[in-house]
Amino acid sequence: MDLDDILALATGHKPTVFERASAGRNTRWVQQQYARAKADGRDLVGDVDMHDPLSDDTGEIPGSPARRS
């Protein structure tokens, strides 16, 4: 199974009424928690590592077995 197969399966799935309701409740909860944290003055992204995972700098030693192809 490759990515195209997974995407085809995902587009063919129609959420049930229960799944939609659950997603709506979860979305509202996350939005409320976010608003509460911002109102409290907390920095929600201060400790997030903004490293680009697609960058060339992997932190590995050049020439190590993990990096050779």
Automatic annotation (TrEMBL):
Disordered, as annotated region: 40-69
Name of protein: Uncharacterized protein
Provenance organism: Phytohabitans flavus
Superkingdom, natural source: Bacteria
Basic and acidic residues bias locations: 40-54
